[in-house]
Amino acid sequence: MAYYWFKAFHLIGVVVWFAGLFYLVRLFVYHAEAEQESEPARTILTKQYEIMEKRLYGIITTPGMIVTVVMAIGLISTEPEILKSSWLHIKLTFVLLLIAYHYFCQRIMKKLAAGECQWTGQQFRALNEAPTILLVLIVLLAVFKNNLPLDLTTWLVAGLVITMVASIQLYAKKRRKDREKLAQIEQKPEFAASVSE
C-alpha cells in the first residue's frame, strides 16, 4: 500500500508544482509589461505582482516541488531495483533540469523585485515553454519507461507540441503588434481631435 500512497501524493505534488511554475512565469510576463506603464500604474502593478509572485512561489510552487521529490524518494524506496533502469536516469536528469529552472525563477523573481531584470514580456513567454517541454519528456519516460516508441506517432506528438509552442509565440507577437498599432493611432493628432469632439 505504501507504493500507492507515495504515487498518489507524488502525482498531486507534480500537478501543484507545474501549476505554480506555469503561473509564476506568466506573472513575470505581466510584471515586465507593467514596467512599461506610466505612474502611478507602474508602481501599483509591480508591487502587486511582487506580492503575488512571492506568495505563489513560497506557498504553492516550492511545497509542490518538495512533495514531488519526497514522494519520488518514497516510491524508489519501495522498489530500489528501479535505480538500475536507464529510463529513470534520463527522467531524473530532466527532473534536475526542472529543479534548476525552479531556482532560476526564484532568481528572476528577486531581480524583478529589485528592478534589475532586463527581460521583456516576450522573453518570459518563451521561457514559460521550458517546463512544458520538460513535462512532456518526463511523462513520456514515466509512462513508456524503456519502451519509448520512436515511430510516426511519437514524431506526430512532438510536432503537435512544437506547433502549440510556436502558435502561442505567434499569437503573443500578434497581440504585441496590435497594441503598438493602437498606441500609434492614439498618438496621431487626428485621433485626439476626433476623441475631443
UniProtKB/TrEMBL annotation:
Q: How does it sit in the membrane?
A: Multi-pass membrane protein
Cofactor-binding details, from the entry: Binds 1 heme b (iron(II)-protoporphyrin IX) group per subunit.
Q: What task does this protein carry out?
A: Catalyzes the oxidation of protoporphyrinogen IX to protoporphyrin IX.
Q: Which residues make up the binding site for heme?
A: 10, 91
Official protein name in the record: Protoporphyrinogen IX oxidase
Q: Which residues cross the membrane?
A: 6-25, 56-76, 88-105, 126-146, 152-172
Q: A Pfam family name for this chain?
A: UPF0093
Assembly information from the UniProt record: Homodimer.
Cellular component annotations (GO), alphabetically ordered: plasma membrane
